[in-house]
Specification:
The chain has 14 helices and 14 strands. The protein is an alpha/beta fold. The protein folds into two domains: 3-66 and 315-420, Alpha-Beta Complex (Aspartate Aminotransferase, domain 1); 68-311, 3-Layer(aba) Sandwich (Aspartate Aminotransferase, domain 2). The strands form three sheets. It has a seven-stranded mixed beta sheet with strand order 4-10-9-8-7-5-6, sandwiched between helices. The chain has a four-stranded mixed beta sheet with strand order 1-2-3-13. Strands 11-12-14 form a three-stranded antiparallel beta sheet, with helices on one face. The protein is globular, with a radius of gyration of 21 Å. The two termini are 36 Å apart.
Length: 421
């Protein structure tokens, strides 16, 4: 079957023909690709065309597609059952590994997605502080929980919607929004709402509305203000966790949050989320405390096995290799005239605009140019995330052969891009 025929059928089953909005290619145009299989840094669509993958399932696949050790761990776990709905030794093994890499996580709870982790962390913060307001930052995306769909990024920014329909105004009224990299706005928000804030939540490395790398001093001041006003600091590290350092952005910037949310990499390609942090804060979670949170598939043994197999590979040497690799890939991107490729860890943001730290500073012309680039590279067998507001992901499977293929594709599209400008 062709991608087009599959998409036409999908339109009769799913809103927009997809199970997640950005997959619909509405931002970049064209027909979405339906993939049949994947290996390493490559995947193959239903028309048997092979693509170099620079999306990597939006971040979980730091080891690449179908890593043999991850597959082996999953196959072993499956032999013992797909789900128990009860405790298993694999939860303990993954928890031990996470605490080894992130010592500030004293207690944790596994869930099934990043959105669920954020939703639960916010509820825990409100239960602990007995306050209701939450502070978030425009340009940070924290999943699709109602309280967080207020000037959020990712798919919402792609479609030009500042908020989502279906979110009660009362939810938005309890969410205070400050711009990233805005020291004055940050001080003003705490001055006005500090005694009412249960928590401030931020992507310490914002990567869902572009890679908006912040001044560490901004994050440090946020930490100080939270402490001064009795609000909890929540780092949303669903993307940056275990990708930029063993302990994520918290380790990289040497700033300890009160709570943290993880996802993606800790599932090794399986659906997983986690929230955790200070033991006293986590003590409010049921059955120890009054804050209810539960999940049938929480701590799923197959997902735990995949996550543990992934984390066991993430040695200091691997992070050094990924850093070196991403610098070379960023240089390859910047061979495209006018394109800038800010990067941190193994995250890269190809943007036709320099020095962006705030979501509202991204120029529409830069996104338009990215859309052209996306189509041209797709025709050359390179799959970028289908939105100019999303970042590219590099894995340990992106080796010399993959870089060579990418550089050849860049050579072909650069001349054509220049003629379109």
């Amino acid at each position: 079957m062709t991608n087009e025929s599959l998409y036409q059928e999908a339109l009769s089953h799913f809103p927009g023909g997809v199970s997640s909005p950005v997959r619909a290619f509405k931002a970049v145009g064209g027909t979405p690709k339906f993939f049949a299989k994947a290996f390493g840094a490559w995947f193959v669509d239903e028309e048997d065309k092979q693509y170099l993958d620079l999306c990597m399932s939006w971040g979980p696949l730091i080891l690449g597609h179908a890593h043999p050790d991850v597959l082996r761990a999953v196959q072993e776990a499956i032999q013992e059952g797909l789900t128990f709905g009860a405790p298993s030794r694999r939860e303990l093994a993954l928890a031990r590994r996470i605490k080894l890499m992130c010592p500030f996580v004293e207690k944790m709870r596994f869930v099934s997605s990043g959105t669920e982790a954020v939703m639960s962390a916010l509820r825990a913060a409100r239960g602990f502080t007995k306050r209701e307001r939450i502070l978030k930052f425009e340009g940070c995306y924290h999943g699709h929980a109602d309280a967080m769909l207020v000037k959020a990024g990712s798919g919402l920014a792609t479609f030009g919607e500042p908020t989502s329909a279906g979110v009660p105004k009362a939810f938005a009224d309890l969410t205070v929004v400050v711009s990233l990299d805005d020291f004055e706005g940050l001080e003003e928000a705490f001055s006005k709402f500090g005694p009412e804030l249960a928590a401030a939540i931020i992507e310490p490395i914002p990567a869902n509305n572009g890679l908006l790398v912040q001044d560490p001093a901004f994050l440090q001041r946020l930490r100080e203000l939270c402490t001064e006003h009795g609000a909890l600091l929540i780092f949303d590290e669903v993307i940056s966790g275990f990708r930029v350092a063993p302990g994520g952005a918290a380790e990289l910037f040497q700033i300890t949050p009160d709570l943290v949310t993880y996802g993606k990499i800790i599932g090794g390609g399986m659906p997983v989320g986690m929230y955790g942090g200070r033991a006293d804060v986590m003590s409010v979670i049921s059955p120890d405390g009054p804050v209810y949170q539960a999940g049938t598939l929480s701590g799923n043994p197959v997902a735990m096995a995949a996550g543990l197999a992934t984390l066991e590979h993430l040695t200091p040497e691997v992070y050094k290799r990924l850093d070196h690799c991403s610098r070379r890939w960023a240089q390859a991107f910047e061979a495209i005239p006018g394109l800038h490729a800010p990067h941190i860890g193994s995250l890269i943001w190809p943007l036709f605009q320099p020095g962006v730290r705030r979501a509202d500073r991204v120029q529409s012309g830069a996104i338009t140019q990215f859309n052209r680039l996306h189509k041209l590279l797709l025709d050359e067998g390179v799959y970028l995330p289908p939105s100019g507001y999303e970042v590219a992901f590099i894995s340990i499977a992106h080796g010399e052969e993959e870089l060579w293929n990418f550089e050849k594709a860049v050579e072909k599209v650069s001349a054509e891009l220049a003629t379109v400008v």
